[in-house]
Amino acid sequence: MTASTSDPIVRMERVNKHFGDLHVLKDIELAVKPGEVVVVIGASGSGKSTLIRCINGLEEFQQGHIEVDGNQLIPDGKSSKALQRIRTEVGMVFQQFNLFPHLSVLDNVTLAPMKVRGWSRADATETAERLLDRVGISDQASKYPSQLSGGQQQRVALARALAMEPRLMLFDEPTSALDPEMIGEVLDAMRELAREGMTMIIVTHEMGFAREVADRVIFIHRGEIVEEGPPKQVFDSPVNERTQSFLARVLKH
Amino acid sequence: MEVTFQFDWAAAFRSIPHLLPGIPWTLLISFGGLAIGFFIGIFFGLLRISPIRWLRWPAILYIEVFRGTPILVQVLFIFYGLPQLLGGPINALTAGIAAIAVNSGAYISEVVRGGVQSIERGQREAGLSLGLSRSQAFRYIIWPQAFRRMIPPLGNQGIISIKDTSLFSVIGVGELVRQGQIYIATTFTALEVYFMVALMYLVITWSLSIALRMLERKGLVGQ
């Protein structure tokens, strides 16, 4: 292994975000190494979604600095070239799937590789079919998103992000909008991705899943990282009082 | 002297060949004007939602001025007023098309704005997160969806503009109402002729409604 591959793929340094009077992110320090799976937990409104949305520039921040795969993001969104490169290398899966309703499943997956990477339709289609097969949707490629179940839609969204061959995947509460019986199929697909060595930052409320796949768990409270460590440590013997009371609340159910 | 209160169907039918020459003019003014108005509407509608404030400003001004003044005044201004400014006459057909264009353009601007703003934020975010540029996200993701939602209000505007052309009889362009007026001047059959004129408008607007409904149904695939 060369030195560069073990360098962090994401590095956040003293990142602060304000929204009016609200201090949404406070001095966030985070480094994620290639192949690492980091799970971010915390109460709703704690800033965990905002944190990962800063990494691909869907949210601006006011102070600090973010580096993704060698590209620098500076405060107030004034780095559009770097931002474009980052977004090309970083995939994202959203809570509400955000599939394109006017495009077929196949076209959802081939759009970005063709328009951004400049692939031919044949190449993009071949990749899309392979990915759809991998997430178990190959027989639905010609359907439209509205004709699929929530779990299927989210797996298409995963295939769509993977089609860009990202170096890092961000997941923003990928199972929160799903019916309980469909959560498993999405988590399975993510589990497989983690096994293959994809670098992943996952915001989730699925504590069992977090314990199983995470290399590291980060607990955020009111915009601050108050605890982080291997899942065993964070879940079984949390040091911070906030983490203890949060886990007591979510694990009781 | 005998006074008849009866509707004279024969007179109504006799007027048809005299009214028909008005239809091409009505269609030309409405659809010519609407076609230009559509592009004006896209232009100012997008300016209206620009993130840059000084670009929004001219759009707001344009929309308020042409939505806030009567189309009759607009066409009189163009036909009688503008020549004084330009130093040469403007023909009635051009004036009519221009009036429909600037008037419908103001309303279509708002239709475009509403359509684009109705697309969920997540659609744009999904596109950007895949590496699409802002203009690619607009072109491939937002616009196709927004356009489908714009079809019903665009249809409304089309029907309104077709009917608005009837006002242009005042500048002497030979559209439907004008042809009716000319014919009535020699036959004095106002009841029957205006009835037929109304019927012809109805046929035109109805055809448009049906065409739009078909277009909408086709566009529903995948929604």
How would you describe what is shown here?
The complex is a heterodimer of chains A (about 250) and B (about 220). Chain A is built from ten helices and ten strands. Chain A has helices spanning about 5, 50-55, 80-90, 105-115, 120-135, 150-160, 180-195, 205-215, 230-235, 240-250, and strands at about 10-20, 20-30, 35-40, 65-70, 70-75, 90-95, 170, 200-205, 215-220, 225-230. In chain A, helix 4 (about 105-115) packs across helix 5 (about 120-135) and helix 4 (about 105-115) runs parallel beside helix 6 (about 150-160). Chain B has a domain at about 25-175: MetI-like fold (Orthogonal Bundle). Chain B is about 80% helix and about 0% strand. Chain B contains nine helices and no strands. In chain B, helix 4 (about 70-85) crosses helix 5 (about 90-115). At the A-B interface, helix 3, strand 6, helix 4 and helix 6 of A face helix 6 and helix 7 of B.
Characteristic terms for this protein:
heterodimer, A: four-stranded antiparallel beta sheet, 10 helices, globular, B: about 220 residues, about 80% helix, about 0% strand, elongated
Order of helices and strands of chain A: HEEEHEEHEHHHEHEHEEHH
The major pleated sheet of chain A works out as: 6 strands, mixed
**Average pLDDT reading of chain B:** 94
SS elements, strand count of chain A: 10
Low-confidence stretches of chain A: none
Q: Describe the largest sheet of chain B.
A: none
| CATH structural class of the domain at 25-173 in chain B | Mainly Alpha
Of all protein chain pairs, which has the greatest interface, and how many residues does each chain bring to it? A-B, 31 and 21 residues
The CATH superfamily title of the domain at 25-173 in chain B: MetI-like
Compute the number of strand runs of chain B: 0
Structural class of chain A: alpha/beta
Helix content of chain A: 25-40%
**Global shape of chain A:** globular
Strand content of chain A: 15-25%
Write down the oligomeric state: heterodimer
Assign the structural class of chain B, choosing from mainly alpha, mainly beta, alpha/beta, alpha+beta, or little secondary structure.
mainly alpha
